[in-house]
Write a structure and sequence with these properties.
single chain; 341 residues; mainly alpha; Cyclin A, domain 1; two-stranded antiparallel ribbon; 16 helices; 1% strand; disordered C terminus
Length: 341
C-alpha cells in the first residue's frame, strides 16, 4: 500500500506559506498582463489539453480607446476559490460521495490554482472537472454526463478541461486526505483510553465533530502546508475542546513515545495552533461579495459584458435623473402620492 511519507503528495505538494503566496501572485500577475495585452483573460481549452490564447490588440488607437476591465486581485481570487471549494463540498454531498472524493477534488482544485488564475480558467468549470477526476481516481465511477446532468451543466465542458487539470497536477493524482487519519486516530484514542462499551458514544461524537472541523480546514491553505495526519490531529484537538473526551496533550505524548517522528511535540502543537489561526481567518464569501467579484470576472472573460453593464447603468441613471426632474415640476400632491406608491 502507498505511504504518505514516500508519496509525491509529500515530496511535491506540501509547501511553505511564502511559496503559496508567490505562486498565487505569479498566476494573478500573468493574468493581469494578459488582460493588458489582449483585453481578455479567457483561455480556450481543447480536449487534448491544448490552449488557445486570444489575439493581441494590435491597433494602438483601439487599444487606447477600449475600456480595459479591472482585474481581480489576489484576495478576490482567494475568496472565489473558497466559494467554489465550498461548492465542491455541496455537490459531493448532493451526490452522496464519500469524504475521500470531496477531499481529493478540493486538493486537485487547490493545486490547479497554484498554476493558474481564476481569470484564465473559470473555477466553476474546474470545480466540476476536479470532482469528475476525483471520482475516476478513487474508483467511484460517475460519468461526465451524469455529473453534468445532476447540476445542470454541459458535460462537454467537464471533458474539455479534464486533460488541462491532469497536466496542471503534474499527473500526481494520488492524494492523502485527513478523514482517514481521523478514523485511525480515534481508534488509537479508544485503545489509549481503554474505552468500555458505554463510553463508545462520546468517541463517536468526537469523530463526528472532528470530521466537521476537517471540512472547514479543507477550505483553508492548510492542506497545502501540512500532512494529513497533522490536519486530522488539529481537527481532533478542536473537537476534543468541545467534547472533553481525553487529555489531548498526554495522548500526543503517547504518540511520540510509540513512534519515531521527524517533528517534536512542540512543533506539532505549534502547527495545530497555526491551523487554528487559519480557521479563525477563514472568510466564507457572502452572496454580495461574490456578486461583485463575479461581475469583475465576467468582464475579464468578456469585455463586452462590461460595456453592456455600463450602458445599462448609464441608461438607468439617465432615467432616474429624468424622473427626478419631472417630479420637480409636478404639483406637491402628485409628488407626495408618487413618493408613497
Amino acid at each position: 500500500m502507498a505511504d504518505f511519507q514516500t508519496s509525491t503528495h509529500r515530496a511535491k505538494w506540501i509547501s511553505t506559506p511564502q511559496e503559496l503566496l508567490e505562486k498565487h501572485q505569479a498566476a494573478n500577475q500573468r493574468a493581469i498582463k494578459m488582460l493588458e495585452q489582449y483585453g481578455i483573460t479567457r483561455l480556450e481549452v481543447d480536449v487534448d489539453g491544448s490552449l488557445s490564447y486570444p489575439e493581441p490588440v494590435l491597433d494602438q488607437k483601439d487599444n487606447a480607446e477600449r475600456s480595459v476591465p479591472k482585474p481581480l486581485n489576489c484576495d478576490e481570487e482567494q475568496l472565489m476559490q473558497v466559494f467554489y471549494e465550498q461548492k465542491i463540498q455541496e455537490v459531493c454531498a448532493a451526490f452522496k460521495f464519500p469524504h475521500k472524493i470531496q477531499a481529493t477534488a478540493i486538493i486537485y482544485f487547490k493545486r490547479f490554482y497554484l498554476q493558474w488564475s481564476v481569470m484564465e480558467h473559470h473555477p466553476k468549470h474546474i470545480m466540476l472537472t476536479c470532482i469528475y477526476a476525483s471520482c475516476k481516481v478513487e474508483e467511484n465511477h460517475v460519468s461526465a454526463e451524469e455529473l453534468g446532468k445532476g447540476i445542470q451543466q454541459d458535460h462537454q465542458m467537464i471533458l474539455n478541461n479534464e486533460m488541462i487539470v491532469y497536466q496542471s497536477l503534474g499527473f500526481d493524482l494520488i492524494v492523502y486526505a485527513p478523514y482517514r487519519s481521523v478514523e485511525g486516530f480515534v481508534e488509537d484514542m479508544e485503545e489509549f483510553c481503554q474505552v468500555r462499551n458505554e463510553e463508545q458514544e462520546k468517541f463517536q461524537d468526537l469523530r463526528g465533530t472532528a470530521k466537521l472541523e476537517v471540512d472547514k480546514i479543507m477550505l483553508t491553505d492548510a492542506p497545502l502546508l501540512y500532512a494529513p495526519g497533522q490536519l486530522a490531529l488539529a481537527a481532533l484537538r478542536r473537537s476534543n475542546e468541545v467534547h472533553r473526551v481525553l487529555d489531548f496533550e498526554r495522548y500526543l505524548e503517547s504518540i511520540f513515545s510509540r513512534q519515531r517522528s521527524s517533528h517534536s511535540i512542540s512543533q506539532l502543537i505549534e502547527s495545530m495552533k497555526t491551523i487554528d489561526f487559519m480557521l479563525g481567518k477563514l472568510k466564507i464569501p457572502s452572496t454580495k461579495d461574490m456578486r461583485h467579484i463575479d461581475r469583475k470576472l465576467k468582464s475579464c472573460w468578456d469585455p463586452s459584458s462590461q460595456d453592456e453593464s455600463k450602458k445599462r447603468e448609464k441608461k438607468s441613471k439617465h432615467k432616474s435623473k429624468r424622473t427626478a426632474s419631472e417630479m420637480q415640476g409636478a404639483p406637491a400632491e402628485v409628488r407626495k402620492f408618487q413618493g408613497a406608491s
